[in-house]
Amino acid sequence: MVIHEYQARSLFKAYGIPVTEGVTVESSKGLEAKLKELAALYPKAQHPDVDGFVVKAQVHAGGRGKGDVFNAKGEQLDRDGKKLAKDGKKAGGVRFVGSLSDAVAFTDVLLGKTLVTKQTGAEGAKINKVLVVPGLNIPAKSEFYLAIVMDRKGQCPFIIASSEGGMDIEEVAEHTPEKVAKIAINPASGWWPVYGRRVAAALGLTGDDARKVAAIAEKLYKLFLDKDASIVEVNPLVKTDAGNFYAIDGKLNFDDNALFRQPEIAAMRDKEEENPLEVEATEADLNYVKLDGSIGCMVNGAGLAMATMDTIKLYGGEPANFLDVGGTANAERVEKAFRILMKDPKVKVVLINVFGGIVLCDRVANGVVEAVKKIPGFKMPVVVRLAGTNSELAKDILKKSGLKLIPADDLNDGAKKAVAAAAKA
Amino acid sequence: MSILVDKSTKVIIQGITGKTGALHAKLMKEYAIEVKNPGFFVGGVTPGKGGETVEGLPVFNSVAEAIKKTKCNTSCIFVPPPFAADSIIEAVDAGIKLVIVITEGIPVLDMMKVKAAIKGKDVTIVGPNCPGVITPGIGKIGIMPGFIHKAGKIGVVSRSGTLTYEAVDQLTKAGLGESTCVGIGGDPINGSQFLDVVKLFAADPKTEGLVFIGEIGGDAEETAAEWLKANYKKPVVGFIAGQSAPPGRRMGHAGAIVGGGDRTASQKSDYLAKCGMKMVKSPTDIGAAMTELFAKQSKTAAPAKKVAAPAKKAAAPAKKAAAAKAPAKKTLVIKAAVKAPAKKAVKGKK
Predict the structure, then answer these.
(1) Cα–Cα distances in Å, from B95 out to A200, B13, B51, B75?
(2) pTM for the full model?
(3) What are the catalytic residues of B?
(4) Interface contact flag, B216 A306, Cβ < 8 Å
């Protein structure tokens, strides 16, 4: 599960990782007063490194600063919220502004608009919330990268630290691997101060700075463990011209399997950031990922579901989704799955591929029959491939149902027939 | 012969009184009776429910008690995710030598702690989030449909359950059969990796070929493929699921997600092919591909059609002949390893 930057900041604050205060809003109403309060927290005398504001779109995607902002008409906007002229300056999802009134104005430019970044895909992400934080004076070479990730190869958490903060760390690792330090944490013995010293050394810091960063790294690890995170990333971690360290942006991913014991994290889920069909599927305990093709897939088992998508592609078709009905598929779950597939307007054909192990094929068949009965005027071609436990029984149920179903012998046959049916539809 | 599960295996189910545990207790028992190995499955554990029976099998309060009473050396875990890691630790602490974890949805940090806790101990963990392990004709441990399997010569290792069934079904229908099938599970941190399992298969003289089914995410497939390239001369058919999966999206399995630095599915597949595996584009073609490799193998001195592969294959029979005698030692080692738990169990009784 992914959370927003403003939520990540609240967790950082709770763990003593230095962040500036901020204001998160869904409308600019009353924002001016809130920003005055925010500014009052940072009087110039005590905070010489604070200057202006940064206005940040809150969406679940990286690359916001370089993103493009579009209005409902699909026009790209400039910094003033007007249609971008040829020589105009494009808005972007993150922007530094000098004054309070500019912060309010730019918040209005962003709210309700669509942000397209390299991570959102062409359809972009709707900006429902905007975070405004104090701007900071950051001298050159004072941005760092610090993260804790679960490393599957080492089967333990790793600290990733780099002096090249504020950049795409994967690119840094590719072009200048010597600038990315990876430090394995022994899960049995937990945190040792040496890890913090190695982080500081990797960032080229000494003295007080080294101690501060070592402490931040340790707190990040505590957050990682306490909250069942899979990624805790600060990018950048900055040192201001007054010598203060701040986590400026945070990306936190959590282990979905652990949400049962992380109610605070589970409550941070923003369903508006997710595809509505995926939200519905999750609530029905189904594994569903929306894709762009026309062949709706319903499969048991994640591996077989992926292989089914692959085979559709192999025969020249495009899968509409990944859908694993899981190991305990009964008639109700299958019916629910079927209904979710039907809600995707792009779906023209359904391919059901079930290899019965624990899943009984006859139950799947009953679920399909029930679901189709409840959809009035259902005419879509359904290609069905059932093998394994009770497959003969299932074929019988489908035959007797009177539904127009296309039987398939194996996955290749099913994929071919689905692709052919989609081409005709 | 086989790996992991053989005639000395005596298995219990942890979580046997739960709905899923009880269902599979029934199916596992039926399979054991069908293959005339009724002593294979000996009981179950659910804390607090000792004294009850499931499918006529005794339920114990603890694994330690189950070992004492039944001399079991293997455990199959159906315990729900919040308590599953604790059950693994209980099994290992009690002296179980093979722990097969079926449970899906165990938190990654729990598995991380389990792996750290068992480091250096004489135990093999398979799973979690896997279909289990079956040696056809001996016994099935897990949730795979028993009837599709047939004792034979191909070892199967896979991250996916239902994809394994696909492969097995074809191997059985092709008349090749399976020596042992191991589902290592779809989680990012699992007890046994591809490499661990292929090494066991390589040491088993009766396993004459491998089916290797991987997925997007991580590089455990590549690590095993590199080892196989250097150490294994028998036929290997491979498949990698997830060619059509978009990066950054988790495809059902917690481990099936392309992260930074990972190869895509097609890059992974190409890499495995470079390591000498015969890669298929659809799982439907696994059986046919294996049959073809065996046909090529039996045609000695067949003229090279494909570049390097046939040359290797042609050389294989000669090496195999030598191997057939040489591994006698290896076989002994395996036997000893398998027997060891039984011995310890006896000791425990004293």
Answers:
(1) 43, 15, 22, 10
(2) 0.86
(3) 253
(4) yes
